[in-house]
């Protein structure tokens, strides 16, 4: 067996090629200039303070920031633990045997980092399931006349779950057998909500267009029967028969209707009547068994609805919660990060598992834009990664003084606060508070820290 001699040890150019190739395969980013400088110095045994002096940086920055991050990304990229002490040996072996020998299988086809805002695409590697929500929805949507209600505050993943239910409905049926229609009620002009007749015409026309069927709304609408009967008949005569199979209709941003009580009662009563018609089976119109509804909304239903006419107390109710520690840890690993228990606890304390906030934090850490310590320290400032997100919330609170005054109460209090119900529900729909029975608390430390000195006392 041949001894390992000095001439077999890797030179800098070969070491850089091995390291940079592996890092790029993992992250699709090359090593930064300062990381290359640390790599060069470490290969010849220089101390951190020597590397710092030669490159015009402080010793603490190289020792506590650049160095540890470099070893972490090299360890993740090369598939084995790398540190300053074993660097030469690891890179030499990688160069001798080929850089892919010890790289994990997942690194061969690296996951592209995604900065996710809004909908997480169906094929994304960064969607985190929250059992048993997904499996229950996938099972329910296959039932005739199904109705699924998804509720959660803003940016908690409701629409991302909705599109997965639609995708699963397609997968579980033969090609062309099922039609899926996602319809965001936020797309309707404000004038459409002026009266029920306008709204239901828009509703039918929008679904017709999505299904790419002939537009017959104006020709078919009759002044004799009233808007709800016209809409029901349009589905029975012009939509459901043309499909000749299940129609999965997903209504997103249903909260928009809550703002218009003049149409809300009639519209929600109509949806409930269709659900009940499907339940009649053969004694009613069997076409309604082909309609499966998904209703997505951000807040509690604060409009008065007859319990016997509301679609919000029937079907399958799904309430999406924040990520727990295990889910955050799992997501971090998908971003190529190995968080310690202390780091995970620090992140959970700041963000309380809020899906959007967690996604952003992990993305920026994976991009090596900052360390976790820096991220936490600047998170609640205008220099942090959440500045635009926080500014939007601040503008909303400033534009609605009553809401701002209510939130001021919440963040200044040392215990849960009881607010007027509508204000509590609106703050909850924005994701700014967590409900505890009839009381509320700030939903996470990030919001408490940021808004505590930015909302003036009422």
Show the helix and strand layout.
Elements: H1 12-27, H2 33-43, H3 48-55, H4 59-78, H5 87-97, H6 105-108, H7 133-140, E1 147-151, H8 158-171, E2 179-184, H9 196-210, H10 217-220, H11 227-243, E3 247-252, H12 255-258, H13 261-279, E4 291-297, E5 316-319, H14 325-334, H15 341-351, H16 355-366, H17 372-378, H18 387-399, H19 401-412, H20 421-429, E6 433-436, E7 439-442, H21 445-451
Parallel strand pairs: 1-4, 1-5, 2-3, 3-4
Antiparallel strand pairs: 6-7
Helix pairs in contact: 1-4, 1-5, 2-3, 2-4, 3-4, 9-11, 18-19, 19-20
Task: Write structural notes for this entry.
This protein has 458 residues and is α/β, with parallel strands linked by helices. The chain folds into three domains: 6-108, Arc Repressor Mutant, subunit A (Orthogonal Bundle), CATH 1.10.10; 133-319, Rossmann fold; 388-451, no CATH class. It has 21 helices and seven strands. The chain has helices at 12-27, 33-43, 48-55, 59-78, 87-97, 105-108, 133-140, 158-171, 196-210, 217-220, 227-243, 255-258, 261-279, 325-334, 341-351, 355-366, 372-378, 387-399, 401-412, 421-429, 445-451; strands at 147-151, 179-184, 247-252, 291-297, 316-319, 433-436, 439-442. The strands form two sheets. A five-stranded parallel sheet has the order 2-3-4-1-5, sandwiched between helices. Strands 6-7 form a two-stranded antiparallel ribbon. α2 (33-43) crosses α3, α3 crosses α4 and α18 crosses α19.
Largest sheet: 5 strands, parallel
Q: What radius of gyration results from the CA coordinates?
A: 28 Å
Q: Would you give the CATH topology of the largest domain?
A: Rossmann fold
Mean model confidence by pLDDT: 88
């Amino acid at each position: 067996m041949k001894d390992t001699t000095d001439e077999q040890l890797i030179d800098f150019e070969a070491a850089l090629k091995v390291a940079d190739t592996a890092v790029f395969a993992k992250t699709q980013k090359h090593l930064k200039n300062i990381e290359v400088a640390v790599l060069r110095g470490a290969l010849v045994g220089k101390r951190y303070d020597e590397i710092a002096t030669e490159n015009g940086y402080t010793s603490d920055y190289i020792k506590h920031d650049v160095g540890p991050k470099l070893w972490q990304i090299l360890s993740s990229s090369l598939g084995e633990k790398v540190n300053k002490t074993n660097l030469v040996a690891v890179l030499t072996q990688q160069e001798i045997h080929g850089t892919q020998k010890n790289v994990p299988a997942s690194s061969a086809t690296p996951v592209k980092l995604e900065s996710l805002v809004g909908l997480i695409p169906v094929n994304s590697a960064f969607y985190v399931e929250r059992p048993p929500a997904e499996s229950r929805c996938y099972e329910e949507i296959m039932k005739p006349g199904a109705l699924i209600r998804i509720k959660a505050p803003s940016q908690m993943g409701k629409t991302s779950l909705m599109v997965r239910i639609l995708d699963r409905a397609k997968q579980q049926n033969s090609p062309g057998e099922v039609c899926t229609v996602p319809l965001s009620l936020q797309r309707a002009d404000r004038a459409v909500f002026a009266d029920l007749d306008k709204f239901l015409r828009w509703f039918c026309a929008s679904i017709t267009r999505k299904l790419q069927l002939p537009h017959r709304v104006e020709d078919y609408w009759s002044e004799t029967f009233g808007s709800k009967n016209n809409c029901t008949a349009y589905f029975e005569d012009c939509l459901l028969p043309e499909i000749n199979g299940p129609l999965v209709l997903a209504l997103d941003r249903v909260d928009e209707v809550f703002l218009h009580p003049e149409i809300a009662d009639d519209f929600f009563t109509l949806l409930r009547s269709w659900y009940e018609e499907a339940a009649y089976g053969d004694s009613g119109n069997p076409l309604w068994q082909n309609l499966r509804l998904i209703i997505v909304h951000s807040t509690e239903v604060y409009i008065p609805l007859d319990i016997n006419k509301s679609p919000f107390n029937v079907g399958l109710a799904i309430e999406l919660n924040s990520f727990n520690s295990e889910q955050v840890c799992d997501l971090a690993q998908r971003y190529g990060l190995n968080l310690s228990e202390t780091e995970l606890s620090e992140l959970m304390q700041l963000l309380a598992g809020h899906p959007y906030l967690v996604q952003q934090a992990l993305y920026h850490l994976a991009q090596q834009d900052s360390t976790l310590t820096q991220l936490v320290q600047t998170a609640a400032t205008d220099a942090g990664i959440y500045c635009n997100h926080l500014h939007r919330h601040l503008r909303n609170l400033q534009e609605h003084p009553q809401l701002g005054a209510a939130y001021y109460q919440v963040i200044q209090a040392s215990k849960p606060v009881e607010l007027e119900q509508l204000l509590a529900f609106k703050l909850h729909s924005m994701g700014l508070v967590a409900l505890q029975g009839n009381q509320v608390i700030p939903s996470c430390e990030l919001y408490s820290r940021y808004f505590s000195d930015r909302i003036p006392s009422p």
